[in-house]
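ARCHIVE CARD
Drawer: 12
Card no.: 0347
Subject: one protein chain, sequence and derived structure
Cross-reference: see card 0346
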Amino acid sequence: MEAESTNEYGPKSGRMSNGLIKTLIENYRQNHLSAINETLGIQDAHSIWFDLPKLKKFIAMIEEEAMKKTPEATEEDLGIRFYYAAYPKLENWNIMESHPVSEEYAGRHTLVMIPTVKKTDEEGEVHHYDFNTLDQSINLALTARRGGKEEDPIGENNGQLIPPSNPIAEYF
């Protein structure tokens, strides 16, 4: 499914006008965010911020790991999928032990970024596969070779949620 755009930069540019950005954000806040807040009885985050060095480092890691596992992949074959996710409630916060995040994020939504690589399936269709699950057979062989230690997946999640952080710098 290809998204349509009506901005002055053209539909293929990926750039959006301020008016379109504002409309899309307001649609989310009036529909999805308000339903989440009412249903769960919380004030969920409406945005997440990542610093540029962290994003660049994550992209460099994707490129490096892709070249190890799929050396034939080009830059155009790589991407990032953003999964909508939610932090656990406080009573289950112990699952966050290996991923230190402030408890004030409990129950709020977040994003998890997972690298993707473009591959053609058995039927000849092109898909953007999650990088961590791309070559399960290779992953299993590596796991066995390391004595059963499963390889850590590549993913990024440490952004700043707003709220609870102050929204003072947000334009939208």
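Annotation on reverse: Residues 7 and 19 are 9 Å apart (CA to CA). The helical segments are 18-40, 52-69, 136-145.
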